[in-house]
């Protein structure tokens, strides 16, 4: 059972994706991640993008903690339907329409956004499925990088056994943390 840990919707129970097609972030990892983001002042009034959203738990947690807007991007039909339910739950509790769901492949979504020339995100979560290759992840990061605000933070969650992502020149890792079988990498736009 997954839940929203803190904020205006704290304690709300989230719908989980049925089956084994997704890998939910554990409450322990989520609490540590959001504690770090709060200490960096990266939750209040920010624009959040949750790629490979699964149930959308990281995105809706951000909304609960004060994010201005949250986009959940998920291609899997069952997971996208769960994202929609969790978005509706949080939007209802918050009395807003801050959380939206895009049923799309991540690469297609980022290509459409780039073509439209819109959107800059301040906080991006990426928890891709294990079968995603390192080359595919590098491509997504390169598509994402131009769509980030100057103070953005990108958080990539992977198995602790996978190598560090190949960052495009415009992104640089500033931290990493291992929690059991999970590793988080934190990156930001590279300095001039």
From TrEMBL:
Keywords: Methyltransferase, Transferase. Pfam families: Cons_hypoth95. SUPFAM superfamilies: S-adenosyl-L-methionine-dependent methyltransferases. InterPro entries: DNA_methylase_N6_adenine_CS, RNA_MeTrfase_RsmD, SAM-dependent_MTases_sf. GO terms for molecular function: methyltransferase activity; nucleic acid binding. The keyword Transferase applies. GO terms for biological process: rRNA methylation. The keyword Methyltransferase applies. PANTHER family: METHYLTRANSFERASE. This is 16S rRNA (Guanine(966)-N(2))-methyltransferase RsmD. The lineage of its organism: Bacteria, Bacillati, Actinomycetota, Actinomycetes, Micrococcales.
């Amino acid at each position: 059972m997954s839940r929203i840990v803190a904020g205006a919707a704290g304690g709300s129970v989230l719908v989980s994706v049925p089956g084994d097609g997704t890998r939910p972030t554990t409450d322990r990892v989520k609490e540590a991640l959001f504690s770090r983001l709060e200490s960096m002042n990266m939750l209040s009034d920010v624009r959040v993008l949750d790629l490979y959203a699964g149930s959308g738990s990281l995105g809706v947690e951000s909304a609960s903690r004060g994010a201005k807007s949250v986009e959940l991007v998920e291609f899997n039909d069952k997971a996208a339907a769960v994202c929609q339910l969790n978005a509706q739950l949080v939007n209802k509790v918050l009395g807003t329409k801050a959380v939206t769901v895009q049923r799309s492949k991540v690469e297609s979504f980022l290509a459409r956004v780039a073509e439209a020339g819109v959107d800059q995100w301040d906080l991006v979560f990426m928890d891709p499925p294990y079968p995603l290759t390192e080359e595919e992840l590098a491509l997504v990061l390169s598509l994402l990088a131009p769509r980030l605000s100057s103070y953005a933070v990108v958080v990539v969650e992977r198995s602790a056994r996978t190598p560090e992502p190949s960052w495009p020149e415009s992104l640089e890792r500033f931290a990493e943390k291992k929690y059991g079988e999970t590793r988080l990498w934190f990156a930001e736009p590279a300095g001039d």
